Amino acid sequence: MNTTIPSNTQPTTNPTMKWTIGILSVVVPLLVAILLSLNNESKIDFGFNTRILPHINAVFNSITSLCLIAGFFAIKNKNIKLHRGLMMTAFTLSSLFLISYVIYHASVPSTKFGQEGLIYGIYLFILISHILLSIVVVPLVLWAIYFAWTGRIESHKKIVKWTFPIWTYVAITGVIVYFMISPYYQPL
């Protein structure tokens, strides 16, 4: 009895994972959009000064960027163990960022950028591209992790060709947006 799988067939994807990744890919951006649209009377008091969170988020994004770049070089040098550790650190930091971001926007009114002219146009371009790509990167990251975790390395390699540059761009532009808007945050 031959139990080997023909080399031209792909392992099937776990249907539960398909649904989970699909739901998270929709719910996360919707949750953020809802929180950003809350009026000031609907904001939540979490019992601590959440105005510190954008500063912490900038640290999360900065370290995430460094982990992604270092992880890229680790895998290019075939250091799989270091690559995995750096990617899971980047994922964990991005997850912590998302939780912190949601708490901040659920509790504090949105900050308006205080400049006009060309710098405002540059800010808007960076902000809008950051937001749009942050929506796209959620399913890409989840699929990349799933494929790596399940040993589907060829599928992992295919998706990270898109995931890595987008995720890195989102992390770096998150820091840039922070530095551009941080002078307009209300004091701690």
UniProtKB/TrEMBL annotation:
Keywords annotated in UniProt: Membrane, Transmembrane, Transmembrane helix
Quote the InterPro entries the UniProt record gives: DUF420 (IPR007352)
Q: Which domain of life is it from?
A: Bacteria
Q: Where are the transmembrane segments?
A: 21-38, 58-75, 87-106, 118-147, 159-181
Name of the protein in its database record: Putative membrane protein
